[in-house]
Amino acid sequence: MVEKKGIRGLVAHLILWIGIGIVAFPVYLAFVASTQDNAAIANGQMSLLPGSHFIDNYYRTLFVGTSGSTREPVVHMLWNSLVMAMAIAFGKIVISILSAYSIVYFRFPFRKTVFWLIFITLMLPVEVRIYPTYKIAADLSLLDSYAGLTLPLIASATATLLFRQFFMTVPDELLEASRIDGAGPFRFFKDTLLPLSRTNMAALFVILFIYGWNQFLWPLLITTRDDMQTVVIGIRKMITTQDAITEWPLVMATAVLAMLPPVAVVVLMQKLFVRGLVETEK
Amino acid sequence: MEKQSVFQSRLLPYLLLVPQLAVVLIFFYWPAFQAVWQSFLLQDAFGLSTTFVAFENYAELLSQPEYLNAILRTFAFSAAIAGSSLSAALLLAVMADKPLRGGAIYRTLLIWPYAVAPAVAGVLWLFMLHPALGVFSRGLRAMGIDWNPLLNGNQAVALIVLAAAWKQISYNFLFFLAGLQAIPKSVMEAAAIDGARPMRRFWTVTFPLLMPTVFFLIVINIVYAFFDTFGIIDAMTGGGPAKATETLVYKVYLDGLLGSNLGSSAAQSVILMFIVIGLTAIQFRYVERKVTY
């Protein structure tokens, strides 16, 4: 632009690298800790370079578990997290696209009411109605089940609004053309609308996967059995305030493993992630 | 805006809505209704009988200095988290907006913490600043600071603000960068030709144009500080020491968990619900969606 290059550019690079350093350092440290010997860390003698226990620690974390409060192998927790994140992402997309289709492409009594009913849920985050929701889930015997982990989080006003917005931009001529070809509501949905919505769905999927994977409060309440635990809950249960019991290298290995899938999704699908993020926030 | 041509069907539109409405009614409206109803009831210590007490739970709650402290604490938290992560993110976004070599790489390296779970962020920072084994704790002690966030309330607060702000930088960065890129370059060039120096240009031209983004992010950050810090607080301090890190949401959880006072816990939920409704309303009223990447 108008600026001369040189010193000003250098300052910008420097500030950005400092920012990256601040953002990355805790994770680097977690990785380093996950490769070291438990005793070295417990003594407060942690080195800032990776140690030699990488394979040991990760093997124990993944397949054996800590000897303390949770003995569950982390590979099992990762599986639970994956199931939960996938089910929430898929579920939200499916029920949202169906309801948006109904609201946009049909005229029926109470259409406006239904729209507002869905819209208002934006203002009812799970944190606000924790106990009654928990009680309902318990009454429906959903505790310690994948259905209980996912169903209460699956409704999505934002996804519905997003699809509604997108359907509004689809030209009416497409529907007319399908009609002339003799397509009914199902055919039009399947052959025309779904293919057009692919990028939207993918972008949304990235955001929702991360949302599901990182859930904390709900899985904390709804799971009591160790084998139903997600990795985010598992890691929380591994740390105790008594230092002697906490096996920090294994905790840090779990942290690294818990971060990998969502971070990989963000980095690999950056374009879609940004799109999804910007679009989901009204 | 309405579609001109639509399908005619009596039953189908309702069938399509069934899954969404079922989830919404069972897991959103019914519990919300129950929370409101519960908040008007008083349960005896053994949970055997309940009496309708109208607004007594609210009156009692609002007369407790403890609750008022939690409200103040939560707002102070939000201000600290929003303030620090917004300013850091704005600085980074302004730098990344310049035509730099490797700009895309910088972006990638800055946005990924978005994907880290709040509870995991909490564990990472707890480890770094753990009183006995944290790498930074030795340094702090060497500087003469008696660092122990497990015992010192202010230090516990600082720890949580750090972790929460750290995680939120990437989000704010992305939206600031989008906001900056939406500002036409011609405006900046005009200001430059008028002889405005970079700092002045930023405060008189860029920043005002960025105001919608700033406002949007303030609301989002407050919501984040209210609700998404739950995992961070639970992993790092559990609300302690001596309630120093007990926010409104965490208090609902603790009071409900102990189960001693369901009416009060429900009343707290309802108050929170009103705060969320207020914030969401502000957001919709004043913030248009103008962000593109």
Architecture overview:
The complex is a heterodimer of chains A (282) and B (293). Chain A is mainly alpha-helical and 282 residues long. Helices cover 70% and strands 0% of the residues of chain A. Chain A is globular and about 75 Å long. The mean pLDDT of chain A is 87. Chain B is mainly α and 293 residues long. Chain B contains 11 helices and 2 strands; from the N terminus they run αββαααααααααα. Chain B has helices at 12-38, 56-63, 65-97, 103-111, 118-128, 135-142, 153-181, 185-193, 198-236, 248-258, 262-286, and strands spanning 41-43, 50-52. A two-stranded antiparallel ribbon of chain B has the order 1-2. Chain B is globular. Chain B starts with 11 loop residues before the first helix and ends in a 7-residue tail after the last helix. The mean pLDDT of chain B is 86. At the A-B interface, helix 1, helix 4, helix 5, helix 6 and helix 9 of A face helix 1, helix 3, helix 4, helix 5 and helix 6 of B.
Rounded mean pLDDT score of chain A: 87
The fraction of residues in strands of chain A falls at under 5%
> Would you list the SSEs of chain B in sequence order as H and E?
HEEHHHHHHHHHH
**Biggest sheet, spatial arrangement of strands of chain B:** 1-2
Terminal CA distance of chain B reads 25 Å
The interface involving the most residues is between: A-B, 103 and 107 residues
Number of strands of chain A: 0
- Helix vs. strand class of chain B: mainly alpha
